[in-house]
What does this fold into?
Amino acid sequence: MTHGIDWNRLAETSLRGEAISPEEARAVLSAPDDELLSLLAAAARVRRAHFGATVKLNFLLNVKSGLCPEDCHYCSQSSVSIAEIARYPILSVQEILAAAERAVSVKAARFCVVASGRGPTDREVDALSEGVRAVRSVHPELEVCACLGLLKDGQAERLREAGVFAYNHNLNTSERLYGEICSTHTFRDRVATIGRAKAAGLSPCCGALFGMGEELDDIVSLAYALREIGVDSIPINFLIPIPGTPLATRPPLSPRECLKILCLFRLLNPASEIRIAGGREVQLRWLQPFGLHVANSIFVGDYLTTKGQPPEADLAMIRDLGLTILGHEKGGEPKAGREMMPGEPKAGREMEQMDVAEAGSEPWTAGGMGGGVGSLTRHPNA
It folds into this structure.
């Protein structure tokens, strides 16, 4: 404990569904490194109570790349970025369906369809709805999450009718800091879009991005804001400093800082899915496995414009931690609703004994993340 803080007492508060105090929240973020394992153990109690030993895998599709008028300083697709990325309009139904097949092949439970831009046009909503219906007809068990920017009235309802399960729109940082990272829309604009998604019956997915120069109070403010909004899943991103973006020279966080952030969000949002999202390989580095004792979800494969570590490395990490993939728990088959993919290993003991290198084609090492992690790619998750 530090400054009189008993980490297990914070876990007990969280398990009762009560909020820890702002002073306690700041203590979590400033915990001495020699107390980090105790803090992680306390947050892990909350994670296990709500999610057991499962890890939910998520797969990203950049369904529309670049071409964005917004000036978000962290984003390689923004109007102020000169990063060399691929730029293309909404992908075809066939391309969306092919990406969903890849998601299923790496055991993802959620397929996240992300489009650049301020917000979708009605024609884009129609095109994406057609793609979602095609995916749901083949893989009815696969959750579809859409992330299309700011929504106008009626668009969330149309997405839900098409079979979209969740809608993602991240707050990213505190309301105080927001104007320093984006001037073309506001923190409140983002809150309003999450409200539209919730009102339409979509599962609200709303998270954060750290490493942009925020202070401790910004992190605490955002954690409480997400608790107040009441979101089902919280993706925690860590900045990938992409060359050609205004934040390209930001210094990295330490992996220990990242773990303390994850602990805070777990303690303040005990029943929400906490997903370690973009930048985990770059910022958490060799401490990634510790993150899964607190978070219960990760993205597998590449991100929107940058490479992630190979899926087989993620599967090996989960296996070595003694955790199981949601939908592929030990002793059971994959969720009903689809046939086994050709060559897909069964759950349980067979999965433990599988050669994890079969899960992907890139070479990897037991202690390595693979080449090119965090670098730009023009063909993510291809």
